[in-house]
Automatic annotation (TrEMBL):
GO terms for cellular component: plasma membrane. It is a multi-pass membrane protein. It holds the Pfam family PTR2. One of its GO terms (molecular function) is peptide transmembrane transporter activity. It is found in: Cell membrane. This is Peptide MFS transporter. GO terms for biological process: peptide transport. The keyword Methyltransferase does not apply. Keywords: Cell membrane, Membrane, Peptide transport, Protein transport, Transmembrane, Transmembrane helix, Transport.
Length: 515
């Protein structure tokens, strides 16, 4: 039987829905750091901490959303609920920016808005990614290209967001930030409306059955679950262990190098504790076979290395935003490009280069030369390291306050884009292929959990961005200037690339012919 040509229409509905959600997220992200520093007058270290906590929690809550969808709501209801919740969160940020002169009220509205964005994303993010694979039969060879098309939707939204939200919000006048947040709110509402209107018609499996509905729970299934006391015990154990680790991390990390208590980072401690506890709880489930445990183990190992990739990559919304705003010559003729526009460079490059990389993998695959998924991801980490090495040489020996050519930041984004194309879409497809069906949304949540830890770590690292000639120490590494700061990411991502490459053969054996 010949495989079907083209892709189901449901894929393009998911593409559009994800596009508007990413428009909302990246539109807000393009302005968020600048809003805190320029309108609310936060210092850069505090702004970096808030940014890291927000982006970390955004990728932590998919664990909860994935669990609720798998067990109770289904993907569809979770997506609509998450989208509407995020729209309300963006509207509260709009109100915060309307009252930025009243700092107390503005901060209260901002944190309430961030809370709703975090909660809504938890319901939205893992469920829409999972639905892509469910549009196809298990042996359908179109899945990898489907995830690549879906990832293009992510980047179309990421491209439009900084251009539109940056144009109306990043004007140099603090009172205009509100319009950027309002545009992000409208984008999220559009995504929710499109999905809700067309989901019953197009979100179906190859046999025409609806995908993503609430799981059917018969009376016998319910009674069987109620007779499992171990489920409650495991839940209590998980919560207790998470709380203990959170407290231990908070007490330990709340001290400075000279022993002075500087205040506990409860959000960071919770994220890192969950990163440890949740994977253990899942992989020790008694229903898993040894093969399934081995494949989940591959997801965990790759997710660990992904932390190093995204913590360096996500400087785009943190320290690299400061660099674009303060030390990059953005003049083109008589026009000065908004700093937020740089955040469109990466998605534009992804949309342009994705077909090229797909052709490269196809060319290599036909000749038996295509690297395995773990090796592709190690290549991605290496390219990330090279991107920071490139810009490190561009800023070496320059004086504070001196602006450099846009070519340096543009080159960094180009190299990082090639690294992302080796890592991100491959990872989504790998998680879907390796996950047992009954844990698919939950394991997608674990995948995003690694991104949660990475984003929190990114905020921590961004706090070491040099300013006013102040020397800072990061994990024993002395940061005195921009060159030192960028070389930190060169060493970190380069070391991760080498280790993952060396492990790739073992990981391929653990996958047992999935690819």
């Amino acid at each position: 039987m010949n495989p079907p040509k083209g892709h189901p229409k449901g894929l393009y509905l998911l593409f559009v829905t994800e596009m508007w959600e990413r428009f909302s997220y990246y539109g807000m992200r393009a302005l968020f750091m600048l809003y805190m520093v320029q309108a609310l007058l936060f210092d850069k270290e505090l702004a970096s901490q808030v940014y890291g906590s927000y982006t970390g929690l955004v990728y932590l809550t998919p664990l909860i959303g994935g669990y609720i969808a798998d067990r109770y709501w289904g993907n569809r209801r979770s997506i609509v609920t998450g989208a509407l919740t995020m729209a309300v969160g963006q509207f509260l940020l709009f109100l915060s920016a309307c009252y930025y002169h009243e700092v107390g009220l503005a901060k209260y509205l901002m944190f309430c808005g961030l809370g709703l964005l975090i909660l809504g994303n938890g319901f939205f993010k893992p469920n829409i990614s999972t639905m892509v694979g469910r549009l196809y039969r298990p042996d359908d060879s179109r899945k990898d290209s489907a995830f690549t098309i879906f990832y293009m939707g992510v980047n179309v939204g990421s491209t439009l967001a900084p251009l539109i939200c940056g144009l109306i919000g990043n004007t140099g006048h603090p009172e205009d930030f509100k319009w950027g947040f309002l545009a992000a709110c409208i984008g999220m509402l559009l995504g929710a409306a499109v999905f809700r209107i067309f989901m019953n018609r197009y979100i179906c499996d190859p046999d025409g059955n609806p995908v993503g509905t609430a799981p059917a729970r018969s009376k016998e299934t319910t009674e069987k679950d109620e007779k499992k006391p171990s489920n409650t015990g495991r839940t209590v154990l998980m919560v207790a262990f998470t709380l203990i680790l959170t407290i231990l991390f908070s007490v330990n990390w709340g001290h400075t190098s000279d022993g002075v208590f500087a205040g506990a980072d409860w959000i960071g401690s919770l994220i890192y504790a969950t990163v440890i506890v949740m994977p253990i709880i899942i992989i020790t489930d008694k229903s898993l076979t040894r093969t399934e445990q081995a494949r989940i183990g591959v997801i965990y190992i790759i997710a660990f290395f992904v932390i190093f990739f995204w913590s360096a990559y996500e400087q785009a919304g943190a320290s690299l935003t400061f660099f674009a705003d303060e030390q990059t010559d953005r003049r083109i003729g008589n026009w000065e490009m908004p700093a937020a526009y740089f955040q469109s460079f990466n998605p534009i490059m992804i949309v342009t280069l994705a077909p090229v990389f797909a052709a490269i993998w196809s060319f290599l695959g036909k000749r038996g030369w295509e690297p395995s998924s773990p090796r592709k991801q190690s290549i991605g980490l290496l390219l990330l390291s090279l991107g920071y090495l490139y810009i490190a040489f561009g800023v070496k020996d320059i004086e504070p306050g001196v602006k450099v050519s846009m070519a340096w930041l543009t080159g960094l984004y180009l190299i990082h884009t090639m690294g992302e194309l080796c890592l991100a879409p491959i990872g989504l497809s790998l998680v879907y292929k390796l996950s047992p069906a009954r844990f698919s949304s939950l394991l997608m949540g674990v995948w995003y959990l690694s991104t949660s830890a990475a984003n929190k770590f990114a905020g921590f690292l961004s706090g070491f961005y040099p300013e006013h000639g102040v020397s800072k120490s990061c994990l024993g590494y002395q940061v005195e200037n921009l060159y030192d700061f960028f070389m930190l990411f060169v060493f970190m991502s380069g070391a991760a690339a080498v280790i993952l490459f060396l492990l790739s053969g073992k990981l391929q054996k653990m996958m047992k012919g999935i690819e």
